[in-house]
Amino acid sequence: MRTTVGIIGAGPAGLLLARLLHNAGIDSVVLESRDRAYVERRQRAGILEQGTADVLRAAGAGERMDREGLRHDGIELRFDRTRHRVDFLALTGGRSVMVYAQTEVCKDLIALQLREGGPLLFEAEALAVEDAGTDTPRVRFRHEDREDVLECSYVVGCDGFWGVARKAIPAGLSQVFERTYPFGWLGILADVPPSHDELVYARHERGFALLSMRSPAVSRLYLQVPDGTDPGAWADEEIWDELERRFETADDWYLQRGPITQKTVTPMRSFVHEPMRHGRLFLAGDAAHIVPPTGAKGLNLAAGDVVTFARALVHRQETGSPELLDAYSQTCLRRVWQAERFSYDMTTLLHRAPGATPFEDRLQLARLERIASSHAAETDLAEAYTGFPFG
After folding, report:
1. β-pairing, 175-190 with 281-283?
2. What is the maximum alpha-carbon separation in the chain?
3. Which residues contact 55 (CB under 8 A, 6 or more apart)?
4. How remote is the C-alpha of 371 from its chain's centroid?
5. Assign residue 264 a region: left if phi > 0, alpha if psi is -120 to 50, beta otherwise?
6. 354 carries an active-site annotation
7. Is 328 a catalytic residue?
8. Residues 317-351: pLDDT tens digits?
9. Which of 222, 220, 270, 226 minimizes the C-alpha distance to 102?
10. Would you call 385 a catalytic residue per the annotation?
11. What separation in angstroms does the CA of 344 have from each of 5, 84, 135, 324, 384?
12. What angle is formed at CA 110 by the lines to CA 107 and CA 115, rounded to 5 degrees?
């Protein structure tokens, strides 16, 4: 099998890249180790930056997002029983975010790819990327109980942290930067309308809490818990009681409860692999970087990576110049490190570290009060949350 771009992974990054290449007249093949049903129900991110939403629209994948997604023009910060709204529209010149689950993004892009695009092979496990440093890289993969080879001009690894793509970069060329946090998020899905019309980020002496949503009828909520927590150890009423405590305000706001349909625990870590390119192998999304979910940056960083690659490849085909492809890693990493910085800032701003001292607690409150009282500090948060420019 032969193609111009071999894409490993049919998450939102790989699927969006395939769509962008199709629209540019560049052929690709997407290899996905899981079946279609798994990809379409894999719960991950739910916040799309302005730039990500705009790219999906331009790619022809925004119709259902605009019809069913929830546009948010701000977020609320809660601390010391007070509430402060960050107004994105006023602070950024009209930028907003879209609440639209990754599962729905994948469904939309899969439908488009199967109807209009190149091959999308489910249950096709990539085994190795070979000859990445040459002009003829190959992906060995297993599909329908037999081993095959995908010969490519370029390979893009959108196969996540545990995938094979990053392993093809020689260890002597790699640098890894990482931080592991001593807490995680206990996340629930609940069949109850959200108790607020925008996301609520709460800092509490007992730990962080987040009120989010998946639809007008389904709430998505999170609690900071110790690393390694078993979600099954928390009874439903215990979760609601703890959420109620951490979201407490001095006014008459209250938290609506409902049936919990899912419980998961998400570990918190920061990770960056440099470089994001070796020869004709390019890394994108979680294959190259991971952010804690506090800043809602994971999916959006992946979208930025594949937009950068698609633009660079189109430039190469139109002009013959490899300049943008050669700059891929450097271009992406500028945005990645800004997102890492923002996600770290949000995480340390809102979570209570084990053993935190009264001094550290007061510093957190001082930082939150600064955001609530300073136009410059609030604008910095709003600009970062709604998204750094692609490229």
Report:
1. unpaired
2. 64
3. 16, 20, 303, 307, 390
4. 24
5. beta
6. no
7. no
8. 999 999 999 999 999 999 999 999 999 999 999 99
9. 220
10. yes
11. 34, 21, 38, 29, 12
12. 125
Residue type, 117: G
Q: Which has the closest alpha carbon to 150: 32, 38, 322?
A: 32
List pLDDT tens digits, range 49-88: 999 999 999 999 999 999 999 999 999 999 999 999 999 9
Q: How far apart are CA 185 and CA 187, in angstroms?
A: 6
Tally of CA atoms within 13 A in the half-sphere of 352 that contains its CB: 21
For 175, counting Cβ atoms within 10 Å of its Cβ (0-12 exposed, 13-18 middle, 19+ buried), the class is exposed
- Report the percentage of the chain scoring pLDDT > 90: 97
Taking the CA atoms of residue 186, residue 190, residue 194 and residue 200 in that order, the dihedral angle to the nearest 10 degrees is: 0
Out of 22, 72, 196, 351, pick the active-site residue: 72
Take residue 327 and report the two structure tokens written for it.
Answer: 């700059």
Distance separating alpha carbons of residues 176 and 156, to the nearest angstrom: 19
Residue 44 has pLDDT above 80, yes or no: no
Catalytic residue among 278, 297, 328, 351: 297
| Angle made by CA atoms 199, 85, 43, in degrees to the nearest 5 | 10
Side chain identity, residue 160 = G
Which residue, among 15, 222, 248, has the nearest Cα to 109 in the 3D structure?
15
pLDDT band at 39 (very low <50, low <70, confident <90, very high): very high
d(CA 108, CA 3): 23
Q: Residue 391 pLDDT more than 70?
A: no
What's the mean per-residue pLDDT of the chain?
Answer: 96
pLDDT at 257 over 70: yes
By DSSP bridging, strand 74-79 and strand 200-203 are parallel
pLDDT score of 35: 95
293 is catalytic: yes
pLDDT classification of 226: cutoffs 50, 70, 90: very high
Q: Which helix (H) or strand (E) holds 188?
A: strand 175-190
Q: At 167, list the tokens.
A: 């392993």
Per the annotation, the verdict on 231 as an active-site residue is no
Q: Count Cβ atoms within 10 A of the Cβ of residue 250 and give its class: 0-12 exposed, 13-18 middle, 19 or more buried.
A: exposed
